[in-house]
Amino acid sequence: MGQAQRPLAQEVEGFLANRPRAVRWLEWAAGRRYRVAAFPDRARPVVVIASRDRTPARADQVAHTIEHDWSEAPPQCHDAYEEILEKAPGLIVVQLRRKNVCGCLGHRHVIVKELPFSEPHEAFGGAAVGEMDIAYERVVSWLAQPLMDTALDTQFIAGSRRKEFLDQQLRFRLLSILLHETHHMVAPQAPEDVVRERSLTFYREALANYVETARATMSFTIDRSFSRLGKE
Ligand SMILES: [Zn+2]
């Protein structure tokens, strides 16, 4: 009987950890970090977040959106990307940068440049490797849906949940860009407006769903702050 195969995410983590010590040390000293993230409901694609800044906070946000926020998105969001994720390379490397020279939010790469993944390895279990970059600071300042973003934001100003909302909003932006670039990988001929429409719809619906759920539990907080104002 064959041994049960380890999930690809674990294989990739093992592969990264088992590279020669000198290689890992040089990488670490140069501030390069790899963080492996998997969708909770599917074995593939596995995402490797490659970052060059020493603080893990940004890479953690990308990982969190794959590992948690994806499940929170409503079913139509999952349906819209089911086929794309099914056809996507089994391993997706995301180079997380602060900015891009060209000012774009992200790109897919034709050739994998991130060294540990630029050549096939048995740990990848035959999975194809795709690569993209995401410009983190561009995403932070991006108004994905200007009217909607502003309208939702004002609902949270009164409440203590505003920070939580802004973090969630940023993570859904990161997720929608990841899905957008994955769509390009799977369908290189698809026109930009088709690809963009799908990722913006994902963002809009995921965020609207979050707000609806949050509002149900938030009214209490707002009511209290209003009544306190009344007394003073
Ligand atoms: Zn695009």
Strand and helix layout:
Blueprint: H1 8-17, H2 21-29, E1 33-38, E2 46-51, H3 57-72, H4 75-87, E3 91-97, E4 106-109, E5 129-135, H5 136-141, H6 146-157, H7 162-186, H8 192-231
Parallel strand pairs: 2-3, 3-5
Antiparallel strand pairs: 1-2, 4-5
Bound molecules: zinc ion.
List its traits.
single chain, 232 residues, alpha/beta, 5-stranded mixed beta sheet, 8 helices, disordered C terminus, binds zinc ion
How would you describe the overall organization of this protein?
The protein is an alpha/beta fold. The chain has one domain. Helix content is 56%, strand content 13%. The chain has a five-stranded mixed sheet with strand order 1-2-3-5-4, with helices on both faces. A hairpin with a 7-residue loop joins β1 (33-38) and β2 (46-51). The protein is globular. The chain starts with 7 loop residues before the first helix and ends with a helix. The protein binds zinc ion. Zinc ion is lined by residues 180, 184, 192, 195-196.
